[in-house]
Amino acid sequence: MALDQAGGKGVWKSGRGKGRHTPKGRQYEDQALAEVQALLGAHPRRRDLLIEFLHLLQDEYGHLSARHLRALAHEMRLSMAEIWEVASFYAHFDLVKEGEVPPPALTVRVCDSLSCELAGSEALFEALEAGMDPSQVRVVRAPCMGRCDTAPVLELGHHHIDHATPDKVRAAIEAGETHADVPAYQDLAAYQAEGGYAVLSDLRASGDWEAVQEMVLSSGLRGLGGAGFPSGKKWGFVRANAGPRYLAVNGDEGEPGTFKDRYYLERTPHLMLEGMLISAWAVEAERCYIYMRDEYPAVLEILRREIAALEGAGLVAPGYIELRRGAGAYICGEESAMIESIEGKRGLPRHRPPYVAQVGLFDRPTLVHNVETLHWVARVCREGPEILSAVEKNGRTGLRSYSVSGRVAAPGVYLLPAGSTIRDVIAAAGGMAEGHRLKAYQPGGPSSGLLPARMDDVPLDFDTLQPHDTFIGSAAVVVLSDHDSARDAALNMLRFFEAESCGQCTPCRAGCEKAVKLMQADTWDKPLLEELCMVMQDASICGLGQAAPNPIRLVMKHFADEV
Length: 563
Fold this sequence. Notes:
Elements: H1 30-40, H2 50-61, E1 64-65, H3 66-76, H4 80-87, E2 95-96, E3 106-111, H5 114-118, H6 121-131, E4 137-142, E5 154-156, E6 159-161, H7 166-175, H8 188-193, H9 198-206, H10 209-219, H11 231-239, E7 245-251, H12 260-265, H13 269-283, E8 285-292, H14 297-312, E9 321-325, H15 335-342, E10 366-370, H16 371-383, H17 386-389, E11 392-393, E12 396-397, E13 399-406, E14 412-417, H18 422-428, E15 438-442, E16 451-452, E17 476-481, H19 486-500, H20 506-519, H21 526-539, H22 543-547, H23 550-558
Parallel strand pairs: 1-2, 3-4, 7-8, 7-10, 8-9, 13-17
Antiparallel strand pairs: 3-5, 5-6, 11-12, 13-14, 15-16, 15-17
Helix pairs in contact: 1-3, 3-4, 9-13, 10-11, 13-16, 19-20, 20-21, 21-23
């Protein structure tokens, strides 16, 4: 097929009159391409940076228009379908097709997870929806924002309002408060003044990684993202595979009721960063990736500042630590889904094996640790394994950071012995809220279901809750009182799972939807629900679908009179 220079019939020809002036499909606009190029600047047009580029567009224009996505597809040499499928997967991207009206410039996201629902988020949402001009302000429901200790919570732009009321929202809008408030925290200079990074420097100079691994193992430290796998063992698994190797920090703390990682990062970010660099040294990682949830804008800003400070101080080479921003997808807390997201893709969990220690980021061996796990790696290396192993209660050793919310007097993060019971946790949180009596509690977020008040002597730790058909998970404790309904709480949890299912596997995608419908009946069809739970648990690809039945089963078991 020759180029027809004379006839002007088109660029490509396959016969008389069959020429085309452009490739097939919608074409980009020059102005849109210039705007995209200006935003991307000198960033390399790598495929794994796609989500970061989508954030740039969303932040600049308040939405993702079709014209900008076409231009981005051209700039990155990707298909429009590939761009669209990634952007549409994440809740924090607003896609606008040709001819559609963009959303208002201001969005209010009202948290509707259990702790906020107990604190009146539904009434707050209705009041805001009725009281705001929809052409100026969009009011939407959103999952847990990791601020359960100050429920009800909402996000105005990137500004969180704690103990939110309509009056507070109106005042914030009038004042233009739409950006994150960065709290006071320990910066690099203050951390180094206390001896920070001295251990890392010594290890880099003459350390033995196996000795450090043994120290971490002897402390009893286990993965604090929920899985509970002995932390030091991961190092050996990753090192057993040929390099290059990577390290990924899982900061996608999306389990409703969990906010311990945010608590530590907003106060002592360098404990996590030093723990990360020690772990990276141990496995000879060529690069570190920190994946942080988008609901934590203040933490993201803190990490940007302190990573730059580490580079400026010569503690890491420029670019050695890459900070990646999530986009509103709970499923990305699953480690393989997180890795897919870091690679710029939809956060779909991978089938295993192979495990990420063998085939992880960019198909290379990858060490994945939770934020709090790395916090403790640094403390164990600085203070010795006894900081954890010497603490004992109810036959359990170590410490747990319990995120406590719900019907307690003083919600917050409490560092307690690992053998603590719900009574100990409530006592640490100032006791029950005035006028409330303990009825039930979540030991580890919605994935763990509900336990009744009579089970108040069970140590809340790894391995102690499995005999009771539940688990500690990320130690997200939500306390319910005699004012609350267990069946309503379970329905809230299943609605969360329904909304957050990635949709990859039918048992989870269809099972959560079916469960929500069945749970809204006046009387639950227990045999049908149990059959549904069995299918979801046995056939779902990842932990979301496997754990989603727990609220249903435990409510039917312990609160049968309500269903």
